[in-house]
Amino acid sequence: MKGMSKVIGIGFLGLGIVGSQVLSYIKENKDYVEEVYGMEFLTKSVYVRDITKKRDVDTSDIYLTTDVTKIVENPNVQVCIECMGGAGMEETYDAVMGAIHNGKHIVMSSKKCLAVYGTKIIEAANQYNVQLRFEASVGGCIPICRSLMQMSKGDEVTKIYGIVNATSTYILSAMESKKITFDEALQQAKEKGFAENNSSEDILGFDTLNKMRILLRLGMKVDVDCNDVNPVSIENINDESTNREEPIIRQVFYAEKTMQDDINCFVGPQILKSDSMLKNVSENYNMIFVESKHSGLRAYYGKGAGGRETASVMFDDLIDVVQSNYRFEEIKPIGCNCLSGDTFEL
Amino acid sequence: MKGMSKVIGIGFLGLGIVGSQVLSYIKENKDYVEEVYGMEFLTKSVYVRDITKKRDVDTSDIYLTTDVTKIVENPNVQVCIECMGGAGMEETYDAVMGAIHNGKHIVMSSKKCLAVYGTKIIEAANQYNVQLRFEASVGGCIPICRSLMQMSKGDEVTKIYGIVNATSTYILSAMESKKITFDEALQQAKEKGFAENNSSEDILGFDTLNKMRILLRLGMKVDVDCNDVNPVSIENINDESTNREEPIIRQVFYAEKTMQDDINCFVGPQILKSDSMLKNVSENYNMIFVESKHSGLRAYYGKGAGGRETASVMFDDLIDVVQSNYRFEEIKPIGCNCLSGDTFEL
């Protein structure tokens, strides 16, 4: 096949920890892509905010630029890989929309930008007939986005719930197993790399809320206004409640369609049933349940974080955008009611 | 969109219980397919072995024929839906290959035919540039085939294991929870619809072995000769072992790649670890674990059987074949060694 491979130009939007890992993964798999797909992923140009910054990947053969139009308007770029986690979500949104308007397929990772602007981005992808994937944004290695995109066609997804935040899982399970306080557990989580220095979005539930919003779009084809949902912080859990032998508490999300065609939902700490499968979720694993009218209950489990893991999933997305001609279904805004944790069981 | 829809001609190969459900599902979703995809799935002709047989679905506007060439060589058919479970696997294979040779996309369900002839069918699909899907053949509603097809690209799947046979799950859990004998449990399974009249393939492990073979092709890109594997029957389980409080025994499959580049595998009853997630599998649910080098451990859980469930999954496959341009990776024959159940833990 050598010399006959079809060249697919790749442009990176952002080259931080995630972006560097994806770039390495693409380089490592050069022969594989050539052999199996008769293609070559060629990364020519990368948008960064600071050209002088030291990176974990060799960029000697790549053009680094602080001008995003050099990527999104570049006629030699067919696919953009967005890894702008460090940037603001408006900047990310503008870059992504620029790419779509110029007919580039796009593999995204920034969950906050997707949570807020996802409907607009999806509509633009449909309109400009480009392929859009964002598996890495929710549940890490779990193929939940593609499953919701591809499954239960003509069926009706009635419930989606689960655990999608590793920081809170680490804290709550450490409080339980080690009989320590919230503050001690948070400190340990930071030391072990399960929590960022500023973990308030994880603890307060906003990270999980963002991920729930992304999943509801794909699974139920609805857009919930996050301002309508008040997540419950795990900070205020009574340390005594985790000191008893029995209860396992996890930060969960729960969303169900109501008969009135709106959504009941909850984000926050929940005591799990004694036979709950969610009890198996520890460390940086996530687990997501999806219930549909005809196909019943499905569950997905896997690592929710990790650089190598994220790179692997974004590489799968990259392969997918060049092989598929997927069209997203229309997403409608929907009202939602906040449940309290004692009105449902997990 | 009315009147402007692109018509996709569908030809059924077989119209038994599964086929009838799929046909109904397609009819029920006529408006959905038109609205979302601007397409119409039009079922014109159906291959059956007995035209006079009474069916669960209205066939008044459909041409039933016992001549399979009328389907597989029909220029108005773009997708064939294979539901020939009742037929012999050679007949199924011939029909499927006829369809592929005539450029039809194909959605299959017959696991036995896929287990034995899967490599040839996959190679033919690649060669004739048609789309092939068979999600319903393993794990029912679990999107395991598409996940293995789409995930861990350039990664290496090192282990696949799990529970994929509802009959054996029902029998073993009934023996445990009700303290009854194997024969009593089998009788109950038949009464409740969890077992066929002739359940020997389920009990002896051949059904699970067939499904393992299908998964190994997709996940590890290898073909194991089923003659090299001796599944262990669940029939010979000592009734006493299930009478104790502790052990939960399930019929499992387990396959791991070795350093010598062959496969170690096992099919049969296995005592589950006390904290095994597989313990949550009961009734007609299945659960499958996949371990990869970079993306780590993933698990999938869902209903393994059911008419409506199977129809839903085959309908998803149908939507997929008209949206994707997937190419299977090359599958290589591989040697395998039979493990005994005490050499690994699940």
TrEMBL record, chains A, B:
Membrane recorded as keyword: no
Pathway the protein contributes to: Amino-acid biosynthesis; L-methionine biosynthesis via de novo pathway; L-homoserine from L-aspartate: step 3/3; Amino-acid biosynthesis; L-threonine biosynthesis; L-threonine from L-aspartate: step 3/5
Binding positions for L-homoserine per the UniProt entry: E196
Aspartate/homoserine dehydrogenase NAD-binding domain: residues covered: 14-135
Catalytic activity: L-homoserine + NADP(+) = L-aspartate 4-semialdehyde + NADPH + H(+)
EC number: 1.1.1.3
Spans traversing the lipid bilayer: none
GO term, biological process aspect, one: methionine biosynthetic process
Enzyme class of the recorded protein, top EC level: oxidoreductase
Domain Homoserine dehydrogenase catalytic: residue ranges: 143-319
Residues involved in NADPH binding: K111
Location of the active site: K211 (proton donor)
Superkingdom per UniProt: Bacteria
Gene3D superfamilies: Dihydrodipicolinate Reductase, domain 2 (3.30.360.10), NAD(P)-binding Rossmann-like Domain (3.40.50.720)
Cross-referenced NCBIfam families: PRK06349.1
Stated family: Belongs to the homoserine dehydrogenase family.
PANTHER family: HOMOSERINE DEHYDROGENASE
Protein's UniProt name: Homoserine dehydrogenase
Higher taxonomy: Bacteria, Bacillati, Bacillota, Clostridia, Lachnospirales
